[in-house]
Amino acid sequence: MSTDKMFGEYGGQFVPESLMPAIEELTDAYERYVLDNEAGFVDEFQRRLADFGGRPLPLQHAESLSERYDTEVYLKREDLLHGGAHKLNNALGQVLLAKYMGKERIVAETGAGQHGTATAMAAAHLDMPCEIYMGETDIRRQRPNVFRMKINGAEITPVTTGRGTLKEAISETMRDWATTVETTHYVIGSVVGPAPFPRMVRDFQAVISEEAREQVQEKTGRLPDAVLACAGGGSNTMGAFHHFVDDEDVDLYAVEAGGSSLDVDEEAGVAPNSASLSTGEEGVLHGARTKLLQDSHGQIMESHSVSAGLDYAGVGPELAHLVDEDRVDAVNVDDDSALEAFHRLSQDEGVIPALETAHAFGYLEEHHDELGDLVIVNVSGRGDKDLETVLEETEKRDLDVAPDMSVLRAAAGSGGDL
Amino acid sequence: MSLERVFADEPAFVPYVAAGDPTYEESLEYVEALERGGADVIELGLPFSEPIAEGSTIQEAVVRSLEGGMTPDRYFEFVEDLDVAVPLVCMTYYNLIAQYTHPETGETGPRAFARRADEVGIEGFVVVDLPAEEAEPLRAACDEFGQDLVFIIAPTTKGERLERMQENVSGYVYVQARLGVTGARDDVSDQTEESLARVDDWDVPKAVGFGIKTGEHAERIVSAGADGIIVGSALVDIIAEGADPEVDQPFAETAQRLESKARELKEGALAGAERAAAERSD
């Protein structure tokens, strides 16, 4: 086994045989085009990231938060990337790579819809037909992104198996890929899956930390004490961390979804969180050995997060490895803290973050005393897609920081449904 | 003794069902019915919660079995409770093997799994998401306990991968008749002959699966050169109908239908062998 398929003991290629030739073909394409810039792939990718994507993106000094925490807080504004989330970095890279490989069709899965939206946009931009698999639960809670995907010309296929979230959507997309592998490229949406996906997706996302590292030195003359990023599968996390990994004085915090509790109900096969780095065990899922939420028999558990984008039972193998090596701290905050942080950032900074991102700000609120004098938080995406969920979940709770929404209730006329 | 023996004299019929589908007790009856119908080897599924290579028929069988409380240890108990003489192959996904803890030794992983499987009489494994590149730990355990490790050859498998798998495979090679996931089809794939040609010089029996539904399909596949046929979804469809509360079919009737279907498939395979022999003698 070649070591470059692995991150320590994590990674590998655990897929049905029908997919292995496609994975070998992809590995070859990744090495030629992405690593060796054959045919000017990297130049075209960077040009399109700039012209279509809007890069570079700002590293914003967050004045209110800096005052609140008596710590200099900087925001890496991936929410300003075209489409509203860091996901376009990877989707554009993979759709372009698929074009270079001569593929004719794109499939992808999506949880929160951000990856699906980014893939649909990239496919429209590069004139490739695109089909997106999405759990029906997620279709309900992420309607705005479903509209956007459809408007960009993508086919949306609802996945009704299991609980209808990201885990099921990934399995269904793998089934499609196994059927159409000769003409189709599967744009995996995070640093997960069989090699070379985790490394390749990380490379496409590493532009985040490459820019942030330069920008923070330009603005402050130094490196940060800490970088915070939310972690579901881990693509914005690895993107935000990659160019800081060798800077041993920079602490890296992967903030997972603690959900409603860190306890699990093994009997029911349910984890009320999505904290696979913090609470999971090593196992094999969707093509890689990594940390998973699983029961003692190895069956995969249903996960939970108020944020659809973090609601996944696995995590990228490189991130699992960096946590084992004590290079990354795996931490988590619960649904309530994430919702509070969502409102606080919206009110204090005028930035409406994705609920995924809000987890990183929840951790900042709870632990700012321990993070040093200069902190970068990766704003992985914007929160427009989450507004309906936020309204619904805020109504269920007694959050001090939440705004009074009675004006909406009055407008609804009945005092009932918003 | 290798599973090759069952392919020696005549084409083998290799049915697949998920253990515990729809219930533990009914499933015991169904597996035994398949043997009565002419099964030569039974691929007995150990259900995994994320069956990415399966179509809807087997995926739903997996859900029924898991909801009935199937676990790896319960699976081994199931095998002990079965009253069948034909060899059994465990078909599953790798995470269940990687996580397995032997109840007596406390050992974890492929060796523990293979050991427990050996204790209950399982003779081989098909691990759907374990390509030859990742198979070394299980291959070593199989060698230690005298079990076969069966690999699936897909229509996309070519070149060096074929050679690597030829070196690793034992018992029989599972020739996937078409791209995609499992599921009964109304026609057999014309890729079959091409797929068989690629493994023609392998010295293990070639069993073709994916999409075989009828005795006529079985006949065509065997006459095209297969040493055996693997049938899952067409059988699981019968179990699913029996499990449907709206159908209200006594399970003895479902068992009878399975036995009949098995007989049809086995007879189709035998007819295919006769046809091939006749064509050779022409």
From TrEMBL, chain A:
It catalyses: (1S,2R)-1-C-(indol-3-yl)glycerol 3-phosphate + L-serine = D-glyceraldehyde 3-phosphate + L-tryptophan + H2O. Transmembrane segments: none annotated. Residues 53-379 form the Tryptophan synthase beta chain-like PALP domain. The keyword Cell division does not apply. InterPro entries: Trp_synth_b_CS (IPR006653), Trp_synth_beta (IPR006654), Trp_synth_beta/beta-like (IPR023026), TrpB-like_PALP (IPR001926), TrpB-like_PALP_sf (IPR036052). PROSITE patterns: TRP_SYNTHASE_BETA. Pathway: Amino-acid biosynthesis; L-tryptophan biosynthesis; L-tryptophan from chorismate: step 5/5. Pfam families: PALP (PF00291). GO terms for molecular function: tryptophan synthase activity. Its EC number is 4.2.1.20. It comes from the Archaea. The keyword Amino-acid biosynthesis applies. One of its GO terms (cellular component) is cytoplasm. Belongs to the TrpB family. This is Tryptophan synthase beta chain. It comes from Halosimplex rubrum.
TrEMBL record, chain B:
It catalyses: (1S,2R)-1-C-(indol-3-yl)glycerol 3-phosphate + L-serine = D-glyceraldehyde 3-phosphate + L-tryptophan + H2O. The keyword Ligase does not apply. InterPro entries: Aldolase_TIM, RibuloseP-bd_barrel, Trp_synthase_alpha_AS, Trp_synthase_suA. GO terms for cellular component: cytosol. SUPFAM superfamilies: Ribulose-phoshate binding barrel. Keywords: Amino-acid biosynthesis, Aromatic amino acid biosynthesis, Lyase, Tryptophan biosynthesis. Its EC number is 4.2.1.20. Pathway: Amino-acid biosynthesis; L-tryptophan biosynthesis; L-tryptophan from chorismate: step 5/5. The active site is at E43, E54. One of its GO terms (molecular function) is tryptophan synthase activity. The keyword Transferase does not apply. The alpha subunit is responsible for the aldol cleavage of indoleglycerol phosphate to indole and glyceraldehyde 3-phosphate. Tetramer of two alpha and two beta chains. Belongs to the TrpA family. This is Tryptophan synthase alpha chain. It comes from Halosimplex rubrum.
